[in-house]
Each structure stands twice: as C-alpha cells, then as structure tokens.
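Predict the assembly for these two chains.
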Amino acid sequence: MNMSTGAIEVRIPTILRPYTGGEKVVVADGATLRELIADLGKKFNGLDERIMVDGALLKFINIYVNDEDVRFIGGLELALNPGDKVTILPAVAGGAKTSGAI
Amino acid sequence: MALRIRAELVAALWEHAEREHPIEACGVITGPASEPLPTRHIPMENSAYSPTFYEFESKALLQLYRELDDRDETLAVIYHSHTSTEAYPSRTDIAYAGEPGAHYVLLSTREEIAPRSEFRSFRIIDGVVTEEPVEIIGD
C-alpha cells in the first residue's frame, strides 16, 4: 500500500531552481526518500534525475532530513513523516584528482 | 566578469593554503549581495584530508548555507588549493561545480613555481570553464 505522508517541505538549491520555476521551497510527498524524489520528478520534470541516477543518490548532491545527512541515516530507504524538512544542497568538493572514477 | 577581491583576503587564502599544504585547503568568501566586494572569509574543513581531493564536511556545509540564508549573504567565492598541479579546474572540480553564481578560485602551492604566483579565478557553469581576470583591490 502506498501511504501518503502528507506534505514534506523540500528546499531546492540555486542550481536546481530552473526545474522548479525558481521556487526555493517546494512541497512533495513520499513515504520514503526514494518516493519523495520520484514525486519531485513528477511535479518538476527532470528534477529527480539531477538527484538520483540508476536508483542511487548522486555524489554531487547532499540531502538532509531534519538537518541529518541522509547518507548516515538510511539513504534512499529512509522513512519520511509528515512535517519532515528536507534540504538539498550541492556538495562542495573537487580537487586535483584525475585518475579513477569521479 | 572579473573577480574583484581585497588584497588582505588574497593573503588570507594563501596563508590557509600554505598552512594546509600538502593537503588541499578549501573555503569560501561570502558577502551581502548588495555589497560590491565579498568580505567574510570562512576557511572550511577538508573532510577528505587529501592532497588530491577536498570536500566540505557535510554538517558544516548545511550550517554554512543556513547562515548565508539568515544573513542574506551570497557565496561569492569558493576556493581550494592544488598542492602538486596547476591552479586550473580538474575534471573532478568541473564535475562537482554546483554554484553557477560563484567565482571558483584555485591556488597552486606546488613547489616547482614561485610562492604565491598562481591565484586564478573561474566560472564553471554546466561543465564549461571560463577563466576571468582577478582584480586585487588595495594592498
């Protein structure tokens, strides 16, 4: 059963705002983070693909649920509750490394 | 568009880069969007502690963005050092560049060149790197 969790507020970083018509905060729905991202893709065409590819979170993006980095608290399978606050930020990273996978 | 930056901030970035060498140093300079020059230097912890990679620690990154929001400031400069290569964006830098409005500053602390001789600024937008002049104000 696909339960609705009600509105979850999602903060969108500058680089992804072209997908949301410039909106900084949007509302989406999902019982897990994976469902929430899929819902973002339904509401804002292509947004999900800038966050998740082949079922995995992109390393260029950090996602926080209630200020906790989701990588450390369950990743895409993290259960969401009504009223949770999700923040998406670009990872700020790089460096001289050129060998191996980026 | 050139990067306009105060001389004391350029010196502060070099000091940070030299202190961390051979680990890559990283950080930002922020300022109110309404001001012509960014003024607040925030050195960040490189959570990768690597000579070839840097990453802002995840909690500190969230705090930084929240603070910018609260203070109505923008991320004017994102900088890091290359400790054995030139001050030019690597493939990794380009892949990660997620702030189209920021000046990406690179400093090279490699030993083959004169100290403090390579300080360069770039825009990185949709994978395209454009170098821009650096205009140093005051000294």
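Strands of chain A lie at 8-11, 25-28, 52-53, 56-57, 61-65, 68-69, 85-90, 93-94. Chain A touches chain B at residues 13-15, 60-62, 64, 67, 69, 71, 87, 89-98, 102 (CB under 8 Å).
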